[in-house]
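Dear support,

I submitted the protein below through the web form. The confirmation email said the job was done, but the results page showed an empty box. After a refresh the structure appeared. I'm attaching both so you can tell me whether what I see now is the final result or a partial one.
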Amino acid sequence: MSAADAMAVREVLSVEAGIGLPGMDVRSTNAGQREALIERARVAAREPRTEVQVRAEVDRMLLTAGRVVQNVSALNLFAGEGDVAVREGRTASGPANYLLYVDQALDTRWSPTLIRRTPAG
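What the results page shows now:
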């Protein structure tokens, strides 16, 4: 049994013993809830992803959503059909991991907390 599986089993057992998730009635926990709990434990037990891995995943999601993904050094807001995601951009309020543009204008519908870097520390 892997360490992740062992952790998942311990978490399920703790739920069944009544010391698991707050508000969960142990007597009414069904198999689907237990499987979901085990999967969440497996995900939580994974090694953290690197910035490169996360950036590749975000790039993939943006491309799937129809955005053209560019580095700020190769900025072309007229690329594709006007939906452009720019990596490592800057705004008046500071640096951002991604800036999202629609029809050559910064897409302000997105919360800055979704695209702005969090301070290190």
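Response: this is the final, complete result; the empty box was a page-load delay. The longest helix spans residues 31-45.
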